[in-house]
Amino acid sequence: MNWLAADLLDNWASVDVFCTDALGAFLEKYPAFVEKIKAWAFHRNRWVKRASAVSFIKLAKKPEYLPAIYEISASLFPVDDDLVHKANGWLLREAGKRDPRRLEEFLLRNGPAIPRTTLRYAIERFPKTKRKSLLTKTRH
After folding, report:
1. What interhelical angle do 82-98 and 46-54 show, nearest 10?
2. How far is 83 from 94, CA to CA, in rounded Å?
3. pLDDT of 87-108, one tens digit each?
4. In CATH, what number is assigned to the domain containing residue 107?
5. What pTM value is reported for the model?
6. Are residues 93 and 124 in contact, defined by beta-carbon separation less than 8 angstroms?
7. Nearest Cα to Cα of residue 71 among 99, 35, 104
8. Rounded distance between C-alpha atoms, residue 30 and residue 25, angstroms
9. Residue 68 belongs to what domain range?
10. Which residues lie closer than 8 Å to 24 by C-beta, 6 or more apart?
């Protein structure tokens, strides 16, 4: 994490490529590190926070990672950073491909706490009527 916090990866593209491929594969091989990556959501550096989400993008296909994914996502709701909101929405959208019902329940349960950018990214795969309904039901 120190290399992220030191801004050695200092833009969304480099963080995303490294974390989705290398760090995601690392977590799959060494799942004991999931807890450490979950803690990154609370770091002060935006790239570390973004990495906490995008590291799980490819792992969202696997049900055993969904609890960590939803925990990280909820941890990122209070963050005031559009690049983190977008990464979080991307992560939720990928988790929703695996289990759309679980994603919908999560969104409804957390409603107003979810940044709108995160929500819009997360619901992109739902049918138009479902997207409209979720946007309405999750308003402040």
Report:
1. 10
2. 17
3. 999 999 999 999 999 999 999 9
4. 1.25.10.90
5. 0.93
6. yes
7. 35
8. 9
9. 2-137
10. 55, 56, 57, 58, 59
